[in-house]
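In this supplementary section we document a worked example of the pipeline. Step one takes a protein sequence of length 58 as its only input; no multiple sequence alignment statistics are reported here. Step two produces a three-dimensional model, which step three serialises into C-alpha cells for compact storage. The input and output of this example are shown verbatim.
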Amino acid sequence: LYISLIKEARKSERTAYEKFLQTLKHDFDARAHNVDKARPPSKYTQSQKQKLDKRFNA
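The serialised model returned by step three reads:
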C-alpha cells in the first residue's frame, strides 16, 4: 500500500512539474511573440525583401 501511494505521489509530482514547464514555455513564447511585434518596421519594402531572399536563397 505504501509503495503504491509513493508511486502515485511521484506521478502527480511529475505531472505538476510538466504543467509548470508547459506554462513557462507558453509565457516564453508569448514574450518572444510580443518582442517580434514590438520591433520597428523594416526599412525594406516587400519587393526589396523578395529580391534579397532570392539573392540569398539562390
